[in-house]
Amino acid sequence: MFPNQRPRRLRSHPQLRRMVRETVVTTSDLIYPLFAVAGTGFAKEVRSMPGVFQLSIDKIVEEAKEVYDLGIPAIILFGIPEDKDTDATGAWHDHGIVQQAATAVKKAVPDLIVIADTCLCEYTAHGHCGYLEVGDLTGRVLNDPTLELLKKTAVSQAQAGADIIAPSGMMDGFVQAIREGLDAAGFEDTPILSYAAKYASAYYGPFRDAADSAPQFGDRRTYQMDPGNAREAIKEIELDIAEGADMLMVKPALAYMDIIWRVKEATNLPVAAYNVSGEYSMIKAAALNDWIDEQRVVMETLTGFKRAGADLILTYHAKDAARWLGAS
Known about the structure:
This protein is an alpha/beta fold and 328 residues long. It has helices at 14-20, 57-69, 89-92, 97-108, 143-160, 174-184, 205-211, 231-243, 257-266, 277-288, 294-308, 318-327, and strands at residues 30-37, 43-45, 53-56, 74-80, 113-118, 164-167, 193-198, 247-251, 271-275, 312-315. It is built from 12 helices and 10 strands. Strands 1, 2, 3, 4, 5, 6, 7, 8, 9 and 10 form a 10-stranded mixed sheet that branches.
């Protein structure tokens, strides 16, 4: 039909391929997750996530400096408290572990963007993302009482220096509640990165090792999305946009590239993809067994997220990717 067209002409030289490349990953696209714990001089590798560590705050600051020097613009902080209770006190207390880490990082690296994960599962004794009925062993979280805890948590994180609040509990109305809380506390300019389409996924397993956040009973399917649903993701993002979300996240990423695409097509807000722990661990395990070329597989995966529509990528590969990009 097009006898004079030969697509291979544009693939004949590495520099020519670079010139016509449609999708490019840069360090500016990357966000690096960090896990903060109490203590000093503490660094414990997560067994199921080679290269990822639980870190005391002094070590978090060291990591933050390295991340910034690599050109990565942002980190997201998760906290592992010393004590847990039914009220998730460690999430919203002024001296909570994420609050301490955010303050320390902003003091040491003021130009690094600090995102605070705003959820309760790491802080509740039962491992669920909010209040449960007394005696409930199903994991059915009470929505509205949980909103009050999330509001308190977000305000406390912003007061500690967090630049962006990232609510991840998938409660109905959580963006609106947090927006109201931030505005009332004088943080009208603090943006919200909503985990707008967060699925009840088997890919989260290693994260629960890292954050010590596995549910003690039941599961999270009454509040996280069913993996079979795509139209529902658009409903979720529309609600979050109406409530004041500034950015939207899809989690996980690898098995949900179609969702990333649908979300990108449905909004003009920035879209983030969370390259989650299970996705990371599979690549790491295969690479450690010399079954794959780690660099090529990681960069191809990140390119896939970007091609699907992600503007931002939260990934445990961020530091490695930044080094590879700097060397290319």
